Amino acid sequence: MAAFVTTRKVLFQHCDPAGIVFYPRYFEMINSVVEEWFEDVLGHSFASLHMDQKKGVPTAGISVDFRAPSRLGEVLTFTLTPGPLGRSRIPCRIEAHGGEQLRLEGALTLVYVDGVTLKSETLPAALAARIEQP
Question: What is the pTM of this model?
């Protein structure tokens, strides 16, 4: 399973008055990384997935350890690495670095669901195959 790497610039909207990323904003950044991975790598934009297909991949669990602060204007490199898939479960590791310094690391679990009933569903074979590509 290939790692997905992308960057995010720390904007004013992410920061507290001291110019340091306010920790809940990292979760918004992580969500945007997941959304970008789905669109750019897996070929399933959230617009299409949610609106057209009536499916979703909500975050069912997330655990993050914050290692060092990030500041306004820095560029963070996020790496998302999917783990072994379950029937409907997509486990992922996430890291963010500012230069060579680790800023956060953690794990999240996405679950493929029916967008109407919000019940988990088996991952479509084509989507699972895309996630599992090396």
Answer: 0.95
